[in-house]
Amino acid sequence: MDGRQAGASPAIPILDVDPFAMEFFADPHPTHEVLREAGPVVYLDKWNVFAVARYAEVHAVLNDPQTFCSSRGVGLSDFANEKPWRPPSLILEADPPAHTRTRAVLSKVLSPAVMKQLRDGFAAAAEAKVDELLARGSFDAISDLAEAFPLSVFPDAMGLQQEGRENLLPYAGLVFNAFGPPNELREAAIARSAPHQAYVLEQCQRENLAPGGFGACIHARVDSGDITAAEAPLLVRSLLSAGLDTTVNGIGAALYCLARYPQEFARLRADLSLARNAFEEAVRYESPVQTFFRTTTRDVEISGHRVGEGEKVLMFLAAANRDPRRWAEPDRYDITRKTSGHVGFGSGVHLCVGQLVARLEGEVMLSALARKVASIEITGKPTRRFNNTLRGLESLPVKLTAA
Ligand code: OVV
Fold first, then answer.
1. Mean pLDDT, residues 49-72 taken together
2. Per-residue pLDDT tens over the stretch 87-97
């Protein structure tokens, strides 16, 4: 006997890859290829998880939330066995049917009609930021632009007080590190988290959120009976967790792409209507959110390979977004690519509920750059920021030339 039985699933390759190690973060793409080519599903024995890195399987897992649930956590930690580091999110870490009601609330708060009201203000802020940076000439494209622009629009759109906003990026960094394994990144972030958590807890309260903002709009849904008074602060917390660092890294990705591929920046300058797709393609190309986990709710076959109940399945969104089975020239940043179907915002019932805010920020910034800037030159060595879930730079020294 070779240990196999008729009808048994073929062996799942076991890989000695740590996708939460610094060496991996420094250059993940060769290892993404190894993961994709090893098979439709692999096992990573460093963290005892199954993983999918091909587009078809990532898409399939995202679109079967009954089998691949979120309510046991979308990080490595299984909430069925371990106490979560904070009360679970009512949207991210929930499954239908509970998820459906909270999702509907945030979906309305971040709707196309709301984006229409925000657009002119966001566009004016983007133009002012680009004018200011053109006057400086040389600056850091991460701190001075990719962080500064979202910080100039998102906290106001939320309705946050001025005081304490410096806690927002550290809190988000913590949230995204906490999805990872108990490595140094996660443990250090949690160890320093008390002031960041205290700030966010306080700002989620109704009395601290200005009228007209996303936060007040969430609390208003208590009065209409859609959510309870206890649920509202937690839904505000979701926007504070997911609404800033993600767009920082999305805009950072787009800047890094346009700086590295000046021919694509030239194409954007020649046709401003490409701004929105240039941002979308940067989300595909860099995948600011690299990974999420699901947990199996039953024994399941993934492309003919058996996975038992209660197993963590790691989805490599970034690897799916460059799978040559799905994308032509996947490693090329092409602002006219048909980007639809990329999983940089996820897919299925959990598809990013804030994607319209992200796209609005990305579009107005790339449009302002395309109108006002002739060239983006990288003037120093970019350095990488390390996070268990987010991919992005710490620093990108650039020099802009006015159009
Ligand atoms: C998509 C996302 C990331 C991080 C946190 C949350 C959501 C949340 O709902 O808290």
1. 99
2. 999 999 999 99
Beta bridge partners of 401: 375
Closest CA to 396 of 372, 375, 376, 380: 380
Query: Where residue 3 falls among pLDDT bands split at 50, 70, 90?
Result: very low
Rounded to 10 degrees, the C-alpha dihedral 186/187/191/194 comes to 30
Atom of ligand 1 nearest to the CA of 91: 9
Q: Show the tokens assigned to 227.
A: 């959510």
How far, in Å, CA of 278 to CA of 275, rounded? 5
Q: Is residue 281 a contact partner of residue 337, using CB atoms and an 8 Å limit?
A: yes
The dotted CATH code for 3-402 is 1.10.630.10
- Region of residue 111 (phi > 0: left; psi between -120 and 50: alpha; otherwise: beta): beta
Long-range contacts of 63-68, Cβ-Cβ distance < 8 Å, separation of 24 or more: 63/347, 63/348, 65/95, 65/96, 65/99, 65/294, 65/348, 65/349, 65/350, 66/95, 66/96, 66/297, 67/296, 67/297, 67/298, 67/300, 68/294, 68/295, 68/296, 68/297, 68/300, 68/313
Ligand 1 atom with minimal separation from the 176 CA: 4
Average pLDDT over residues 94-115: 98
Residues framing ligand 1 (Cβ under 6 A): 89, 91-92, 175, 237-238, 241-242
Q: How confident is the model at residue 198 (pLDDT cuts 50, 70, 90)?
A: very high
Q: Which atom of ligand 1 is nearest to the CA of 179?
A: 4
Question: What pLDDT, on a 0 to 100 scale, did the predictor assign at position 10?
Answer: 80
Does pLDDT of 104 surpass 70? yes
